[in-house]
Write a structure and sequence with these properties.
Elements lengths: L3 H10 L3 H23 L2 H20 L8 H20 L9 H4 L6 H19 L3 H12 L4 H8 L3 H29 L1
Helix pairs in contact: 1-2, 2-3, 2-4, 3-4, 4-8, 6-9, 7-9, 8-9
Length: 187
C-alpha cells in the first residue's frame, strides 16, 4: 500500500505537470526552512531549493528514489545540497535566525529581550553540536520530520537517530544550563 507522498512521487516520476506542481507545493516549505536555518541567506535558500528539486527530478527519472519515506529521501537530498554548497565555499558562515521564526506576539520589551537572549543561547548551543546532531535536531524539532524519515535522510538506522537525538538533547541541556549560570549569578 502506497502513502499519498509515495503516490505523488510515482506520478511525478511520469512527469505529470499536476504531480510536479503538487510535489513542489508539498515539500518546498519544509526544505526551504531547513536550508534557511543552515545558510541564512534568502537568495541562496532559493537557489539551493531549486537544486534540491532538480536533484529530486533527476533521481526520479533515473529510477532512484525513496526507499520507504519520500520526505526522508527529499530531506536527505536537501542535506546533501547544503553540504555541497559549503564544500564549494570551503568555509562555514554565521547563520542568523529568521526573525519570523523567533518573534513573539508579546509587546513587552523585557519579554522580547529575554526571548532574544534565549534564542541566541539556543543557536549558540546548536552550533556546538556535531553536524549529524544538528541535522537531527533541525529535522525533528524545527521541521517535525519523523524518526524513520530522518534516518533515511542521514543514512542511519532509526535506532542511531534516536541515539543522536538523545545525545544532542542532553548536550543542549548542558550547554544551555552552563550559559544561564553566569546570568543567574549576576541576577
Amino acid at each position: 500500500m502506497t502513502t499519498p507522498d509515495q503516490q505523488l512521487l510515482i506520478q511525478a516520476q511520469k512527469l505529470e505537470p499536476d504531480a510536479l506542481k503538487a510535489l513542489h507545493e508539498r515539500f518546498y516549505e519544509t526544505v526551504a526552512r531547513y536550508i534557511q536555518f543552515k545558510v541564512g541567506n534568502p537568495r541562496i535558500v532559493e537557489d539551493l531549493c531549486g537544486d534540491v528539486f532538480v536533484r529530486v527530478l533527476e533521481g526520479l527519472q533515473r529510477g532512484r528514489g525513496w526507499r520507504e519515506s519520500p520526505q526522508g529521501w527529499i530531506m536527505g537530498i536537501a542535506r546533501n545540497v547544503v553540504a555541497d554548497f559549503y564544500r564549494r565555499r570551503e568555509r562555514m558562515t554565521e547563520v542568523a535566525l529568521n526573525p519570523n521564526l523567533t518573534s513573539s506576539r508579546q509587546t513587552d520589551p523585557t519579554y522580547h529581550a529575554l526571548q532574544n537572549e534565549t534564542h541566541r543561547q539556543l543557536k549558540a548551543a546548536i552550533d556546538q553540536l556535531t553536524e549529524e546532531q544538528r541535522d537531527v535536531i533541525l529535522m525533528r524539532f524545527m521541521e517535525g520530520v519523523d524518526i524513520k524519515s530522518v534516518a533515511d535522510a542521514i543514512n542511519k538506522s532509526p535506532g542511531a537517530v534516536k541515539g543522536l537525538q538523545y545525545r544532542a538533547m542532553k548536550a543542549l541541556a548542558e550547554l544551555m544550563e552552563k550559559e544561564s549560570e553566569p546570568r543567574q549569578a549576576r541576577g
